[in-house]
């Protein structure tokens, strides 16, 4: 069974098992318009995929912008101040639900939303960050979709793709990103067990990343990019360019960086994340309490390889990959 079939099975489980895709009774309660505020931390192409899948799935559940749904989407462009003001505006607007993306956005939404339910996505460590008490029970108005790929799978992918021993791994992350810091701690703990030293490359912006790479690039056997907005955006190109000059590979936990030239990674299905979040949102708009819903994990992850990057590094895609559902970017 390939990952597309499994992904469809997961969504069917959500729709007909753990939670249903519409409100109780199969359709939203009549006679009112529901207000949904969507607050992306940064609305890049990949967050647009999540948002579009979220809105489309809500419409399939009977919440339609032409009849009973009013949606506001406001991009914070990576600014904490802008994100907080957007969320306060949603509160003044009396939104029925807020859809938040990324750990930064979800933490702000939980803090500011008051009694308004919050559904989140693109968060890897919701329990560790205090968004929910447990994955099985949030204990508050916040619930959502966990976008997490076990680091064992990510490091196994690295070892399969990269010939030779990776003794020193440069892990790149944006300073201050809550998810990225937990990712680094977990990566370091696991890498030590495998005999790999982790070099932390933690920066606040693209300019500081460029400076650090000029010193650090020659001392690592491979780079790994976290899923934060900097390392999946402008930072990805900087790391890819620096690595290319030195002939070392770049692996990523997000699809965006692979499309920008990273060698590959084990990534979350973004559209499925949006669909799963919409299933939760439909239930909440239909009257369910967020505490009655599970925080679910997007599964299965996808293997993705950039063919051009592999050729440039002289890396041959392992034949064993061909028997798996691998997405190859030409």
SSE layout:
Elements (H helix, E strand, L loop, with lengths): L2 H16 L15 E6 L5 H16 L8 E5 L6 H13 L4 E5 H11 L5 E6 L18 E5 L4 H11 L6 E7 L3 H16 L3 E7 L2 H11 L5 E4 L8 H13 L3 E3 L2 H5 L4 E4 L2 H16 L10 E2 L4 E5 H7 L12 E4 L1
Parallel strand pairs: 1-2, 1-3, 3-4, 4-5, 5-11, 6-7, 6-8, 8-9, 12-13
Antiparallel strand pairs: 10-12
Helix pairs in contact: 1-10, 2-10, 3-4, 7-8
Please explain how this structure is put together.
- This protein is α/β, with parallel strands linked by helices.
- It has 2 domains: 3-148 and 268-299, Rossmann fold (3-Layer(aba) Sandwich); 151-267 and 303-329, Rossmann fold, CATH 3.40.50.2300.
- Helix content is 41%, strand content 19%.
- It has 11 helices and 13 strands.
- A 6-stranded parallel beta sheet has the order 2-1-3-4-5-11, with helices on both faces.
- α3 (80-92) crosses α4 (102-112).
- The longest helix has 16 residues, at 3-18.
- The two termini are 24 Å apart.
């Amino acid at each position: 069974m390939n990952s597309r079939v499994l992904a469809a099975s997961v969504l069917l489980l959500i729709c007909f098992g753990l939670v249903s895709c519409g409100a109780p009774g199969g359709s939203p309660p009549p006679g009112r318009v529901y207000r949904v505020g969507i607050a992306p931390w940064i609305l890049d192409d990949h967050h647009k995929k999540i948002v579009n899948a979220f809105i489309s799935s809500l419409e399939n559940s009977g919440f339609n912008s032409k009849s009973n749904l009013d949606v506001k989407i406001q991009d914070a462009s990576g600014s904490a101040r802008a994100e907080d003001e957007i969320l306060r505006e949603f509160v003044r607007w009396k939104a029925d639900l807020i859809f938040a993306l990324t750990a930064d956005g979800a933490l702000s939404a939980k803090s500011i939303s008051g009694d308004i339910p919050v559904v989140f996505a693109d968060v890897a460590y919701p329990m560790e960050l205090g968004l929910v008490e447990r994955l099985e029970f949030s204990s508050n108005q916040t619930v959502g979709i966990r976008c997490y790929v076990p680091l064992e799978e990510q490091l196994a992918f690295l070892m399969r793709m990269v010939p030779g021993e990776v003794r020193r791994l440069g892990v790149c992350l944006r300073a201050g990103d809550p998810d990225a810091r937990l990712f680094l701690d977990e990566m370091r703990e696991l890498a030590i067990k495998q005999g790999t030293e982790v070099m932390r490359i933690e920066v606040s912006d693209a300019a500081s990343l460029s400076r650090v790479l000029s010193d650090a690039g020659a001392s690592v056997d491979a780079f790994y990019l976290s899923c934060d907005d900097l390392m999946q955006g402008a930072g990805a190109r900087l790391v890819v360019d620096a690595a290319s000059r030195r002939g070392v590979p770049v692996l990523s936990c997000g699809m965006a960086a692979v499309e920008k030239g990273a060698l590959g990674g084990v990534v979350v299905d973004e559209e499925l994340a949006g669909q799963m979040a919409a299933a939760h949102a439909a239930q909440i708009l239909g009257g369910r309490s967020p505490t009655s819903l599970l925080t679910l994990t997007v599964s299965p992850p996808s293997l993705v390889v950039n063919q051009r990057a592999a050729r440039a590094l002289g890396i041959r895609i392992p034949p064993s990959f061909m028997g798996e559902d691998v997405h190859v970017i030409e």
